[in-house]
Predict the structure.
Amino acid sequence: MRGEIAFMIAVAACDRPSPLLICHNANCAGPVDSERDATLSALDSSLALREDGRPPFDGIELDLFWHGSAGDCRFGHAFADAAPVAFAASDRVASHLASSTDASWHGEPFQLFLDLKEFREHSPDPSQRTGHAGCALDVALAVGAAARTGGHTLQVVFSSKSPALLAAVRAEPRFVAAQDLALRLAGDLGIPRPLGAETRPLQDYGHALGLEVMAYNADFMTQGQYQALRALDLALAQWMNTTTIESLDAIERYRPTYVLASELPLVRSWLER
């Protein structure tokens, strides 16, 4: 399979898309290992990536969940009592922006994806969603302050498979007040049942949310969904774990604004050749 991808890199360089490449689950230095998704060690390795003297990524995705019993927001891809607090992760991104002249591949703005996880086994009440949304804004504003210190601009995309969580983010007073940050909301079509437990059909995301972005998995996007998203004038965000010919073909076919990749150096190599 890797040989076939190398062949595509060599011969399919014409009319190459130019999406913003985001470090998926803060774990994109390779090799692919879902056990390291949204961990501080993987985030450190990912932020240290360099190609031609600059980071190969245009931004980082941080997964955030609300720890109801502790009453705080944590950094993690799955619920765990021992997960670090959210600022343990965002402080690393803030340090990267405050100290780096070249903070990303394409330059400004740096892209911060904050993916808000709502777990069925720990379903929050509305007040907990408010706390979760407030934490996400705290993270965005703290990273934004560090970006200004480093002379960078920042775009923040709040993503979730939960329309209720996205509504809580939009209702947060600072979402409107943060005029110096470019803040966007993104839904996620997820993976179809029975393979995915958190899938949301497009109609679950009402117009009142004001979504600007919709995420999809490279392996499960349909032509009908694509046409519907284009008709709604939504920017596309493709996420993928392993990099396959099919996932690269989806980038060429759908031309998303963002690509969230676990094998980021490989995808960057394909995009630039």
Notes: The chain has nine helices and nine strands.
